[in-house]
Amino acid sequence: MLKIKKVLPYVIAFLIALGLPMAIWKTMPGEKKHTTISSESGHKESVIEVTSIEQSFKAVDDKLSSLALYVQPLLKGNKTIINVKLLDSEGKGYVDKDIHMATANPRPLLKIDFPAIENSNNKEFVLRISKVSTSKSHQVQLYTNGRNEYKEGLLKKDGIPQEKDISLNTYYAKTKVELLNYMVSQLPVSKTAFLIIAGLFVVILFLFIKESLKILE
Questions:
Q1: DSSP 3-state assignment of 172?
Q2: Keyword set for this entry (predicted)?
Q3: Span 102-115, average pLDDT
């Protein structure tokens, strides 16, 4: 019993050291998010009504697989249907989808998934959003950043350029290894320093195991 009490802290430390990385790995998403236009904290500065709008933008990575728009809260019973199209600068289409807003029920994010576009990095795309059907009392409005800071694209409403851009997130499909590599690249330390820290973690873990086995002898 005494030996078990002595080794218990080592067992707990080992389980934490082993379980934490496994939990992080298991919960990692299969995509990388990028706030392409505006920041989440600034997406409520202004809105634009969906009639026939067009937003151009540039992808920042390969395997573009989702887009997300910020939608102003809908009135109860809003049965508006919008159509979303995604094309590249050469006119090739990737998305053509009717979205029933009553079913989608964005709060406020409206995420649109599609098969990953392999070579999307630095490619220019056009997002076209139009109203398919609605009642006179209902409308759909998208949040914009209202500052016209995004220089990689242009927003048009009914063919007329606007002095703002719609708030837009883009997502890129990634394996967990690719995502982990990206996360490491964003750390405030070099990859070499990260590997040294990870190596020290493994050494400390080994010493814990070794010490606990000595106690049990």
A1: strand
A2: Membrane, Transmembrane, Transmembrane helix
A3: 86
Q: Please say whether the beta carbons of 10 and 207 come within 8 A.
A: no
Residue 58's identity, in one-letter code, is K
pTM for the model:
0.67
Asked if pLDDT for residue 53 goes beyond 90, the answer is yes
User: pLDDT at residue 210 above 60?
Assistant: yes
CATH architecture of the domain formed by 32-173:
Sandwich (2.60)
Buried b (16+ CB within 10 A) or exposed e, 20-46: eeeeeeeeeeebbeeebbbeeeebbeb
Q: Which residues have a Cβ under 8 Å from the Cβ of 103 and sit 6 or more positions away?
A: none
Check residue 98 and report its DSSP letter. E
Cα separation, 206 vs 27, in Å, equals: 25
Does position 3 have pLDDT exceeding 80, yes or no?
Answer: no
**Helices in 68-190 by DSSP H: which ranges?**
101-104, 176-185
Burial 97-120 (b: 16+ CB within 10 A, else e): eebebeeeebebebebeeebbeeb
pLDDT at 185 over 70: no
**Rounded Cα gap, residues 129 and 52, in angstroms:** 6
Q: Please report which confidence band the pLDDT of residue 25 belongs to, taking 50, 70 and 90 as the band edges.
A: very low
